[in-house]
Amino acid sequence: AFQSTAGIRPVPQTLTGHGPPVQVRIARVSASFFSTLHASPAIGRPPTAEEDVAGGARVAVITDGFWRRELGGDRAALGRTLTLDGRTYTIVGVMAPDFHFALLRQAEILIPLAMEGREKEFRGINWVTVVARLKPGLGVRDAQADVDVLAPRINGRIEEHTGWRLEAKPLLEDLVGPVKPALTALLGAVLLALLIACADLASLMLARGMARQRELAIRAALGGRRGDLVRQLMTEAMLLAAAGGALGLVVAPWCLSALVALAPPDTPRLDEVHLDGAVLLFSLGATMAAGLLAGLVPALQITEPHLMEVLTNGSGGTARRTRARSALVVAETALAFVLAAGAGLMIRTLSGLLEVPTGLASPERVMVADMDLPQYRYPAERIPTFARDLLQRIATAQGVQSAALLTNVPLDPRARAEFGFDLEGEAFAPGQAPKAEMVFATPGYLQTMGIPLLRGRDFRWTDVKSAPHVVLVNEAFVRRFFANGEPLGRRIDHLVGPGNDPWEIAGVIGDVHTQALDRAPSPLMVVPLEQFPVATLRIAARSARADPMQLLPVLRGEVLALDKDVPLASPRALPQIVSDSVGARRFQMTLLSIFALVALILAALG
Length: 606
What we know:
alpha+beta, six-stranded mixed β-barrel, 42% helix
């Protein structure tokens, strides 16, 4: 069923040699990525299959934006080099300006996937996204039939995958599926606002028609046909609608810019939002429909057969038209209050979410920043030494109460991953092996993040790789897997791949919302960074003062003092991360509130 497949892995890396070191978004992609997407570089060439292997030539394809911003749009940029995480890559291509692909997560540099070392050996590596292009004439069902045949073969070769099922999904559904209900609701709000505007226009046409009854009656008496009168009134309504549509198109670019600015940065396909011919055609169709809807009924009401009564007794169907106007006002008000009620409900829901306890003590005093250690200069055995030296320096800095290195932050979706494992003495059916989220962290993690230790012990700096392996678990983990037993001292096998020593549960910590404020805390394990070093990290610091962001210059200086090529990126206070976790709902609430306000204003004008 598949014409071609491709692998994608977005990762942060450090760019040096172009001024101060900066963290940039890159994506490691297989050589088949470009042919699968039918997207070739506008300048240069894509990587070849020979370059997409361990030890192959290091080449890079850059986006048009990066090319213009960093290299001045110079066509001679082909052949120049970029230093990423200490490795040199030669630029071989520049993508077209209109190239966008959501799964790249706004990466500006594409390099070969070329998996090697622990990436190939460790079966827990599950953050490579696979996309495929179907052969002409085949659909998702055909793709699912193929992967249903493939899954048992993989399960037979990889014990950890026993019982797993592969699922083929259309790319568009995978990208926008989670936000489709919200988009549908917002589309409904737009429709209600449009109906209110149509009712306003219809009410205006009725009022103008009643004022022109005598004129229309005289024209009818002189032989004017009803169809001609209706056509004239409809033309006037269409002109009014066209004027409104034209005004809407004039202000649309500014409104769209504001909309994109308000949207959360992780909104699917946000960088593809723009005005084009399809939008103009839709706007034209909506304008014509609004004009017809708003003008037809008033035109028929005004030109009804009773029109000639105006010349004899001065009125004709006035009461009926008054009732029609009253009905329009009632309809406008009802629709406006529907939107207002929806906006009020969204505001109440969001307020309730922000009051949910996160499980973190005094998060307003904590800041977090990204820190990527180049894997080629920081092998696993060097990372613990760097972590220890850095935290010792930070501990003596003024204003720092505590600090730690960790891999992922509660309510921050980046780097979140679930790992499978086995519990010593427990048997599970195939495909039912337990899973839990995992954080790799240094001592000081609990104190810095404000997570309580309920029983057992915390990490120590003596928990090195050669020492017995230990792990902390949260209460949700205990409830799920040790409902009737004591977790302390129990052992976990195959936590980060086969062949490792068992991990002993040394402590139980409090629950923290890691995925969303409206979801119950999930099982969580915390592993000492000293015993399983990881290069993509975050540094967290708790301030002794009120504003934790004042610590940023201190942290940045201490990191650069140890390694001038390791920058800090994306610094944020912990409350900002909590707030960003409800960014999608806040965006929906804001839009719905705007539509409700517009609807109330239109209803009042009507």
